[in-house]
Specification:
Two copies of one chain form a homodimer. Chain A is an alpha/beta fold and 355 residues long. Chain A has three domains: 51 residues, lambda repressor-like DNA-binding domains (434 Repressor (Amino-terminal Domain), Orthogonal Bundle), CATH 1.10.260; 128 residues, Response regulator (Rossmann fold), CATH 3.40.50; 132 residues, 3-Layer(aba) Sandwich (Rossmann fold), CATH 3.40.50.2300. In chain A, 38% of the residues lie in helices and 16% in strands. Chain A has 13 helices and twelve strands. In chain A, the strands form two sheets. The first copy, chain A, has a six-stranded parallel beta sheet, with helices on both faces. A six-stranded mixed beta sheet of chain A has the order 7-6-8-9-10-12, sandwiched between helices. In chain A, helix 7 links the parallel strand 3 and strand 4. The longest helix of chain A is centred in the C-terminal third of the chain and has 17 residues. Chain A is elongated, with a radius of gyration of 27 Å. Chains A and B meet through helix 5, helix 6 and strand 2 of A and helix 5, helix 6 and strand 2 of B. Chain A binds a DNA duplex (30 and 30 nucleotides) through helix 3 and helix 5. Chains A, B: This is DNA-binding LacI/PurR family transcriptional regulator. Chains A, B: InterPro entries: HTH_LacI, LacI/GalR-like_sensor, Lambda_DNA-bd_dom_sf, Peripla_BP_I. Chains A, B: Keywords: DNA-binding, Repressor, Transcription, Transcription regulation.
DNA sequence: CCTCCGAACTAATACGCATTAGTTCGCCGT
DNA sequence: ACGGCGAACTAATGCGTATTAGTTCGGAGG
C-alpha cells in the first residue's frame, strides 16, 4: 500500500503523466493538446477529447514553475511593492491600483502573483536577490518609490519584463505608466483663470519628486498660456502647517491673490494648512477665496466640501500598467504612457471677487 | 562568432554550471555551497571560498522557477474569493483580511496568488472548474459565502489543502478559521447585564447563516447564565427597516425592555433600523435606552458614536487562516481555530434607567 | 603491502513541462 | 510488391537546481 511519492509529496496534484495514463496516451500528447498544439502536430479529434476529459476529471492544472523553467510562459503576472501591498494604514494603500491591475489581468487571461516583498515580519527585506523571486512570473509590476534601483536595473538589463507604476525616468529602458500631472494641473489653472482669477499661488512641498515638479510645470505653463505668467507664484513649504498661516494668507490676498492651489501629498499637509489658514483668517471658500487641490483629498477630509481639482485615475493606471506589461511580453515594445487625470469641479473654487 | 545558447538565450544570466566552471568545481558543489550544505557533505573551506567568489564575480542569482521545481513546492498560497472582481472600496470588509494574509504569508515565506471568480481569462466566472485553477498554488484560502460547495468538496477530497475564512461545518474535512461570535456576543450581554439591564432584545435577520445563529446562541446563553433566561427575546426581521419602527420600539420599552442588540450584517440594516427607531421615538442612547451591535458598524456610520459591541478581528483572522494553511502543508494537521473578538465599550450602552 | 576509512568531491537523477526528432501504420500509386 | 507519404502519435531531451548515490585519493592500521 505504500504509495509512491507521486501521491504523497505532491498531495495528489496531478501531472501531465497521470492525465496521459488515464487517457491512454503519452505525456507528450497531453502537453500538445493542453498547450493548444501550436506546433501543428497532427492530432486526432477523439484523442484531444479524451485528453481534455481526463485532464478535467483529475483537475489538472499545470505547474507554473515547470512551465516557466521549460522556457514557456506561466500566464502569471507579478506585483511587487516594497512596502506591504495591503498596509494597515489605509491612507496610502495600493488597493485602488490593484483593482485595475486585477481587472485588466483577468481580461488578458493572466493570474496575479503578489510578491510579499518586504511586508513587515518577512525575512530580510533588503536581502540581495529579494527582487529575483519575481522571475517566477512572466513579467512584473512594481509600485512604491522605495524599490531598490540596483536590483531593478539588473532585472531590466537582463531582459526581464517590468513595468513601474509611477513615472521613473532614472532607469533607462524601464517601462512605466504615470499620471499626466502637467496637463491635469494646467486644466485646473485654466478653470481658475476662466473664473476670473488673475493672481494665484501654488503651495508645494519642498522636494523634487516628479509628481511635484510636474504639477508645478503644468501650473506655470497654463498661467503663461493665459498671459498671466508674471502672476505665477510658487511657495515651497517644508512645513506647511507652520508657514501657511492665516496671516500669510491675508498678506497674499492683500496683494491681489484670489486663488490658492495645493499639491497632493501623502499626508495632505499642504491642503490641510490651506484650509486651516482660510478658516483662521475668517474667510470662506469659494466666496472669499478660491481653493484647488492638485489631486485627491486625504480620506479623513472626505466629508469636507469636495475640493476643486483632479482625481488621479489609480484604477485606470493599474489597468494601463498591465497593458504595458502585456505589450512588453507579446511584442517586446516598451511603452510608457501617460494617463489623463479627471477634472473634479468640486466646490472650493468660484468666480474671482470683483474688486 | 555564432555564440552558443549560453550567451544568447539567457542574456548572460549565469547559472550554477558557469559558476562551477569558473571555480573549477562541479555544479553539485556549487549547489551545495550556495545552498548552505544542509545535507552535511564534507567541503573544504577553500573550495567554498572559491565558489562564493566565483558566484559573486558572475553575479549569480538562483532561478526561482528551477528552485521551486526541484523543491516540488512553489511557495505559493492562493487566495480565492468568488466576487467577480476585487471590491472597489477600500473600506470593504474584504480588505482587512488581506492585510493579515499578506503579513502572515510573508512571515512564512510564501507569495500569494490572487484568484477571483472571473480571472479565468474573462471566461464565465461560474464555469465548472473555475476552482480547479487554484491548484496552481500549494494551498488556498477561500473567502466569501458563495463559494460553490460541490467544487470545494472535490478539491478537499482530493487532498488539496484548503482553508476557509469563516466557519463552514457542512463540509467534512474542510479546515476553517472563524470568529468566536458565541463568546463575543455573550460578553456583550454580560456587559449589559452588569449595567443593570434585565430585559433585552436581539434583532437579527431572517436567515440561518452560522454567523447569525452563533450570535443568537451567545446571546441566549449569556442571558441564561445571568438568570435572565425568560427575559430573552429574539426578533427575526426579514426587512428590518419596515419592522423595527419607532412605534415598535416604544412598545417594547413599555414592556420593560431597556436594551436592544443588533447583529452585524453586510448592509447593517438591523443596526440602521434600530438607530432610526430610537431617533424616531425621540429617545436617546444611552440615557433612555441602551444599544449594542454584535460586530462593527458600516463604514458610512463611522462618524456616529461608536456602538457598544465587539470588533471582528479580520486581520487576525487572515493571519490565522494562513497559519492553518501552512500547518496543513507542513504537518498535514487540519485545525480550525476560533479567534476571539475584541469587546468594544463604545458609547451606546449605559446603566439601565431605574424605573 | 594490502585494506579500510574518511575527507572531498562528482555523476546521475528527479522535478514537470515543452519541444524536436523521430517511429509506426495504413494506404495510394505504379 | 515495394517505395513513398502523410496522419497520428511517442521517445528523448533540455530548462536550472537539489539531492542521493557513488568515486577518488591519501593516509592510518594490521
Amino acid at each position: 500500500m505504500a504509495e509512491k511519492q507521486s501521491a504523497k509529496s505532491r498531495r495528489g496534484r496531478p501531472r501531465q503523466a497521470e492525465v496521459a495514463r488515464l487517457a491512454g496516451v503519452s505525456q507528450t500528447t497531453v502537453s500538445l493538446v493542453l498547450g493548444g498544439n501550436k506546433q501543428g502536430v497532427a492530432l486526432h479529434p477523439d484523442t484531444c477529447a479524451r485528453v481534455l476529459a481526463a485532464a478535467r476529471e483529475l483537475g489538472y492544472v499545470p505547474d507554473p514553475a515547470a512551465r516557466r523553467l521549460a522556457a514557456a510562459r506561466n500566464n502569471l503576472l507579478g506585483v511587487f511593492s516594497f512596502t506591504a501591498t495591503f498596509p494597515t494604514a489605509v491612507e496610502h494603500s495600493y488597493y485602488p491600483f490593484l483593482v485595475g491591475v486585477e481587472q485588466e489581468a483577468a481580461r488578458h487571461g493572466y493570474d496575479l502573483v503578489l510578491f510579499t516583498g518586504s511586508s513587515s515580519g518577512g525575512a530580510q527585506a533588503a536581502s540581495p536577490g529579494a527582487l529575483e523571486r519575481v522571475r517566477l512570473a512572466d513579467g512584473c509590476l512594481f509600485l512604491g518609490r522605495h524599490i531598490p534601483a540596483g536590483e531593478l536595473r539588473r532585472l531590466v538589463e537582463h531582459g526581464y519584463p517590468a513595468v513601474h507604476i509611477g513615472r521613473r525616468d532614472e532607469l533607462d529602458n524601464l517601462a512605466w505608466v504615470g499620471a499626466d500631472y502637467v496637463e491635469a494641473s494646467a486644466e485646473v489653472v485654466r478653470h481658475l483663470a476662466a473664473l476670473g482669477h488673475r493672481r494665484m499661488i501654488l503651495v508645494r512641498e519642498d522636494d523634487d519628486a516628479p509628481a511635484s515638479t510636474d504639477r508645478e510645470r503644468g501650473f506655470r505653463e497654463a498661467l503663461a498660456d493665459a498671459g498671466l505668467a508674471d502672476a505665477a507664484a510658487v511657495v515651497r513649504a517644508a512645513d506647511p502647517a507652520a508657514e501657511i498661516t492665516a496671516d500669510w494668507l491675508r498678506g497674499r490676498c492683500a496683494e491681489g491673490v484670489t486663488a490658492f492651489v495645493a499639491e497632493e501629498t501623502d499626508t495632505g499637509a499642504a491642503w490641510r494648512a490651506l484650509l486651516a489658514a482660510v478658516e483662521g483668517a475668517g474667510l470662506h471658500a469659494p466666496s472669499d477665496v478660491s481653493l484647488a487641490l492638485l489631486g485627491s483629498p486625504p480620506a479623513d477630509l472626505a466629508d469636507r466640501p469636495r475640493p476643486t481639482g483632479f482625481d488621479i485615475p489609480r484604477t485606470e493606471l493599474g489597468a494601463a500598467a498591465v497593458r504595458a506589461l502585456t505589450a512588453l511580453l507579446t511584442t517586446g515594445e516598451t511603452e510608457s504612457p501617460l494617463v489623463s487625470c479627471a477634472f473634479r469641479p468640486g466646490s472650493t473654487a468660484g468666480a474671482a471677487p470683483t474688486r
